[in-house]
Write a structure and sequence with these properties.
This protein is mainly alpha-helical. Helices cover 41% and strands 9% of the residues. The strands form 2 sheets. Strands 1-2 form a two-stranded antiparallel ribbon. The chain is globular and about 50 Å long. The two termini are 28 Å apart.
């Protein structure tokens, strides 16, 4: 992750600077799909976000109740080395992996939001309810001088609906998605609520 941030130089195409965008969970991931399990306590010890001082951070949050359920399915079903818990309830109450993890992660970033050069906060639920506007605001943050039309954003947004993504995932036609099964709880795109 820090190596990725240090490489954070933008590319140039036809004299247009295209920023390097890094998708990160910033030490909050529990078990990766390839089975790798990072130290779960890294997130709790990573309180200082100075490495983001010269970066733009787009922080996407989701209702923690939905995140904890999503995490449970991700780590117990969507990994080559899935974790085991007796129940969803036990996972939610786990002090390292459960609900506390999500709240702590949000609190850490709440206290560090002034560290990055630019910080933008968006809710997952807003992307679902007002998608085109939300995607436009994300693009404006990432590419401030973009001239991407709303009609193109609408088309991309509509092609990325949960139903369409779920169908593509079942067909195994999404690059970067690993297939762990066709049952809803084994999919990356589950209910999307």
């Amino acid at each position: 992750m820090s190596d990725e941030l240090n490489r954070g130089k933008s590319l140039s195409k036809n004299n247009t600077r295209i920023p390097l965008v890094i998708d990160t969970h910033d030490n909050s991931n529990i078990v990766n799909e390839d089975g790798y399990r990072p130290d779960p306590n890294l997130m709790f010890n990573d309180l200082n976000k100075d490495r983001f001082a010269n970066k733009n951070v787009l922080f996407i949050v989701r209702d923690p109740r939905d995140v904890v359920v999503s995490h449970y399915h991700q780590i117990t079903k969507r990994s080559k080395s899935p974790m085991q818990f007796d129940s969803l309830s036990d996972f939610i109450r786990d002090p390292v992996f459960g609900f506390n993890r999500i709240i702590t992660f949000y609190e850490i970033w709440f206290h560090n939001q002034s560290v990055p050069k630019n910080f933008s906060f968006i809710k997952y639920e807003d992307i679902l309810s007002n998608g085109v506007f939300s995607v436009k605001s994300i693009l404006d943050f990432i590419l401030p001088e973009n001239d991407i039309s709303v009609s193109i954003i609408e088309k991309a947004y509509n092609q990325s609906s949960a139903d369409k993504m779920r169908k593509k995932e079942k067909e195994n036609s999404i690059e970067g998605f690993n297939k762990f099964g066709e049952d809803l709880d084994y999919l990356k795109v589950r209910k999307a609520v």
